[in-house]
Write a structure and sequence with these properties.
Order of helices and strands: HHH
Shape: flat
Largest sheet: none
Length: about 120
């Protein structure tokens, strides 16, 4: 029985050209042809990319998350907590619950102050 050799032709895939960086090109304004007589565009620094509402939202979510964890430790049954955590918490479980409520109130106050200021 004769063996047939299957030669597979390798396809030459065209290489993609490297993508050029996107740049903002400002053309000098010609007198008399300006549609918007405002200030020219100013590039924004990368450090200013995060806006205040997203940072505020992050910290509010962080405060509420910590509050939920503290409340969960406060209301969890004694047998559900690990011994080192139970030794650290001891008889202060009611205090932990009040701390979680205080964190929620503080987060609500920050949100209220932001809404009033905006």
């Amino acid at each position: 029985m004769a063996k047939h050799q299957h030669l597979q032709a390798k396809r030459q895939h065209p290489k993609a050209a490297p993508a050029a960086e996107a740049t903002l090109v400002l053309q000098p304004q010609r007198p008399g042809r300006s549609e918007n007589p405002g200030l020219p565009l100013v590039p924004v620094a990368a450090s200013q990319a995060i806006s205040l509402p997203s940072v505020l939202l992050f910290f509010l979510a962080l405060m509420l998350g910590v509050s939920v964890l503290v409340a969960a430790v406060a209301v969890a049954p004694r047998r559900a907590l690990p011994r080192p955590l139970l030794a650290a918490v001891g008889g202060q479980r009611e205090l932990l619950f009040f701390v979680s409520v205080a964190i929620d109130v503080a987060a609500g106050f920050v949100l209220f102050a932001y809404v009033l200021a905006g």
